[in-house]
Amino acid sequence: MNGVEGLAPYRPQIDALRDVGQMLWQRGWSVGTSSNYSVVVGRDPLRILITASGKDKGRLGPDDFVVVGDDGRGAWPGQAKSSAETLLHVVAAQQPGVGAVLHTHSVWCTLLSDYFFSQGGLVLEGYEMLKGFAGVTTHETRAWIEIFENTQDIPSLAEKVRERMTDVASPMKFGYLIRKHGLYTWGVDLEETRRHIEVMEFLLECTGRKLLLEGAISAAVVA
Ligand SMILES: CSC[C@@H](O)[C@@H](O)C(=O)COP(=O)(O)O
Ligand SMILES: [Zn+2]
User: Fold this and answer.
1) How much is the ipTM here?
2) Residue 103 CA, closest ligand 1 atom number
3) Could you read off the pLDDT of 82-91 as tens digits, one per residue?
4) What DSSP assignment string belongs to 153-190?
5) With a 6 A CB cut-off, is 30 part of the ligand 1 pocket?
6) Pairing mode of beta strands 36-42, 100-104
7) Is the pLDDT of residue 215 over 90?
8) What are the structural domains, with CATH classification, of the chain?
9) Is the separation of the CB atoms in 108 and 205 below 8 Å?
10) Is the Cβ atom of 84 under 6 angstroms away from ligand 1?
11) What is the value of pTM for the model shown?
12) Residue nearest to atom 15 of ligand 1 (CA)
């Protein structure tokens, strides 16, 4: 089996990820080859279908994908190089109830992850759109979105993420930010994860625009 032949059983999932890539690129959240996407295609042993590294996510080809195992390595020889951030997908996919992971690089995520970094995260609270997150039934919800320092040492970042996703008392929910880098979100399947990323981006944009509005209002009051 060559690297690409092994992808044959996963054509429906590949097509779904290509559609997601086109949508996220069009929204401006996955430009310049940034972002990576994955779905779980097997358990026991874990198998993840993930984007190959360095591809234009708005124009993913049918063979721009890799199947990896829980060590982040190709499940068979001869495949393309998987995403540089494969281990972040593996760690999320190893958690119960996670069937897909999406990572984006929107302008708002990039800026807010730096603005709120010194506080360790940011709160999303009071917005009706919070009900787009799985299991949330009221706008009177307080979602804490953590921010990790950016690094090229993905194995060490993956371990930090694992600690927070497996924290029994207060596990991270819905997603997290990486400083000046972007957003990771997950869900039970690709459909839910796609919704989570739209909800998260919407709420983060609200947060950013509210700060701008408050700044403009206080400037107007001073003048
Ligand atoms: C514009 S490059 C961004 C990358 O360094 C990385 O953060 C990213 O999101 C895409 O990496 P990739 O290896 O293609 O999955
Ligand atoms: Zn990235």
Assistant:
1) 0.98
2) 9
3) 999 999 999 9
4) -HHHHHHHHHHHHS-SSS---SEEEETTTEEEEEESSH
5) no
6) antiparallel
7) no
8) 5-222 (3.40.225.10)
9) yes
10) yes
11) 0.96
12) 83
